[in-house]
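Supplementary Note 2. Why include the ligand at all?

Several targets in our set were suspected to adopt different conformations when bound, so apo predictions alone were not considered sufficient. For every target with a known small-molecule partner we therefore ran a joint prediction. The input for zinc ion is given below.
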Amino acid sequence: MRELRLMMVACTIVTALWFTHASAQRPAPLGDATLYEGARLIVGDGNPPIEVSAFLVENNRFTRVGRKGEIQAPAGATRVDLTGKTVIPGLVDAHSHIGYMKNLTSGAENYTRENILDHMRRFAYFGVAASQAMGSDFGEMPFQLRDEILAGRHPDAARFLTAGRGLAPLSEISSDNMRQAAFPVTTVWGARASVQELVPRNVKLIKTWVDDRGGSIKPLAPELYKAIIDEAHKNNLRVAVHATDLKQAKELLRANIDVFAHMISDVDDELVALFKLHPNAAVLSALGGPHRAIYAPWLNPVHPLIAETVLPEQIKRLQGRFPVKGEAIAPSQEAWDRLAKGIARLQKAGVKIGVGTDGGGQQGDQFIGWTMHAELENMVMAGIPPAQVLVAGTRTSAEILGQDDLGMVAAGKSADFVVLDANPLDDIKNTRKISRVFLRGVEVDRAKLKAGFMNRGTAN
Ligand SMILES: [Zn+2]
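The joint prediction is reproduced in token form.
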């Protein structure tokens, strides 16, 4: 009896400690209100900005958004003057691979809780409020870390979105690529069972690969990806696919695919017509690969945001690779021209387009966070107007990922926003002129993060 009582006392103490700990880590106390006034506000819906805005943040959410003078601060509220600045919603990267890159190496050996947190802090530093890891996660840890970040336990980290383990054909999986995390899919029953394993993990989407890698591998058979899509839809999950071939893209659209994780290599009338029949299907940009090969002016001279977040040896390695010169440039130029023309055409046709960077991929040269800003520029260079590119990189990406409370500065949404020194509607490269970043209503300590990135022990 005495022992039981002691145990109960111990339990009470542990519970009390837990609650103290949890509340101490909460981003802002309830009842906390801040009124931000004077900024040019781009709310994320493509409409012209509110030139002299005011928005109120209470309990980590936007509660009122309008013109300065229209919104009164509640008693006791803090006021922040943002005159001369431009505010955009926190950016959303809809396709990345998180936790693999570290210094000059990339691989599963780097996949730790600490490394994922480091990457999410880099995203935060760059004004990216959330990033979706596309099928390269494994184990229980990523789901736990995702939930901790969502609960505000890591105020300087962007939202970590995980699809858990992707689903791939055996031919895609090897120990030295990120598909090592994937469920191997060989039968219809197995495909359905793998989707079922992800359902209780509260993922929003399933990632799969359907690509013959230029004819070098056997792609996932249609009956297998159809089973994945069917099982996912039965469980209210979306499916994102790596498939860039035009013919496969059409077959996937007919099979009710939800998201293309990469831009499709070609666009023709039939593809546009199929997208019209499937208006909820979306395409993520991922233009960075071919474009970086021919266009990387931010490496010479090195952009300050890169210099202050990436180790010199990593920068040097990429400078040695890009941009490609001489005859070798032709295939990349040709690939870029095709992708750029295609994405501009899809955008004009009203296809839902989000921004994905494929950052953190195994090539080891997609600097976490920076790639988002390079990708926004790529989309403008492809011919999409800056206002629409900003919608793609905020509201649309959030919508594709099922993050209803992200992507806009609007009442009810999570107060994730970026304060810029210049207007990105004038020049999309102004998204890099970051003054301050707020996540869940709390300012990210960028100076502290910067110091951490360049500490050789943790720099990436
Ligand atoms: Zn990828």
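Residues 95, 97, 134, 261, 358, 361 surround zinc ion (CB under 6 Å). The two ends are 55 Å apart (CA to CA). Comparable summaries for the other entries are listed in the accompanying table.
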